[in-house]
Structures are given as structure tokens and as C-alpha cells.
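Researcher: Here's the sequence for the chain we discussed earlier.
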Amino acid sequence: MASYDAKIGEHVVTITYVMGGTNQIGVKKPSKVKAWALCPISGKRIEEASNSVGEATRAVEASVAKSIEEAETPAEPAQV
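Model: Thanks. This is the structure I predict for it:
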């Protein structure tokens, strides 16, 4: 397991990732990379999986940026 501090807008987010491993019966799994981070505004955990660390990291960065944007944008008031 490793982590990476990414600057997304004005926020610094820690992205953690882990590669492959073994399943419950000890058989080696393909080396998929799973990366995750917490949105600094909503606190929601954002998780992505990919075949490489770079792809997984970029996917999480993009998802966190979208989550931050959605959390900072106020919802439209309902029309009565």
C-alpha cells in the first residue's frame, strides 16, 4: 500500500493505492491497482480501479475534482 498527496484545486488530497495480492485461497490475483481518496468537502470515499498506478491515480483525481465541484456548487432551489 502506498499513498500520494495530490493538489486538486486549492485542496490537498491523499490518494492511497494498493496493487494485486492473493485471494482467499492463496491464488495470486492479476495485478489490478485500486486507488481511493476522501473528498475534502463531502467526506465521501472515492474509489477507482485500473491496470496501472498512473491511470488509477488520474481517475481518482478526476473523480475527487468532480466531487469537490458538486459539493461547492449550491443546488438549484425548487421552483414552486
